């Protein structure tokens, strides 16, 4: 059934676990995330990023409607989340498209501008009954920007500043920069565990980890132990899908029916989803 991110994050926090949130791009992503979550009997979040909407010719509804239907028919609770939103026009489509939560991303702006923009987004979101996440510090690697080094001073989230940001903006959750970078295709990132400890001590809102594909299993598990309650994963599914399709087409150069290689891609994503949820420690489905 369809539920909300706020509900799943609260349940994760109560069980000292983290809810896995997967970025969906195609219908195969939607089906794989739901099937993978069902296979380990855990709730899950389907998230659509502004970049994914851009890929879908700027239209949110076709993928959103498919995700809502998949959530309603799923055997586990499934929430819909709009991810990395910078456009106000897109933000305002969230409630009607079936999203119970949004991540508003003004992290690239100077602190005062990030705070002002986030505060306005929070006021609007709360009036709509939406749960809203924002980002402070900067988790690099979006839009192939690549250059931002996750280890550069200033890119990390400062605990005292984060405390003020949460209090002054009213956000429901905070995405923190603690060592990950978006779009990593190797699992070689390391977390700043001391910083995570200081952040959990300083803040009383749920903390969200982005760029989680770059972390090895032990670091993913340590993030949850350290207090992260929402873990965003995108690239790991693309790696699984693209790798399986590439292998299938190499093995079957005569293949024509798109269902043949999409099945291989979807199956690989389903396995990846189940494995990541197992690593995080599944949140009980009820
Ligand atoms: O918001 C989305 C996540 O941060 C995904 O990051 O593609 O590096 O796993 P990733
Ligand atoms: Zn992200």
Automatic annotation (TrEMBL):
GO-annotated biological processes: carbohydrate metabolic process
InterPro entries: Aldolase_TIM, Class_II_FBP_aldolase, FBA_II
Cofactor: Zn(2+)
Alphabetic keyword roster: Metal-binding, Zinc
One Pfam family here: F_bP_aldolase
Superkingdom of source: Bacteria
Cofactor note: Binds 2 Zn(2+) ions per subunit. One is catalytic and the other provides a structural contribution.
CDD domains named in the record: TBP_aldolase_IIB (cd00947)
Residues annotated for Zn(2+) 1 binding in this entry: 84, 182, 210
Binding site for Zn(2+) 2: 105, 135
Residues forming the catalytic site: 83 (proton donor)
Record's keyword annotation contains Metal-binding: yes
One MF annotation (Gene Ontology) recorded for this entry: zinc ion binding
Name used for this protein in its record: Fructose-bisphosphate aldolase class II
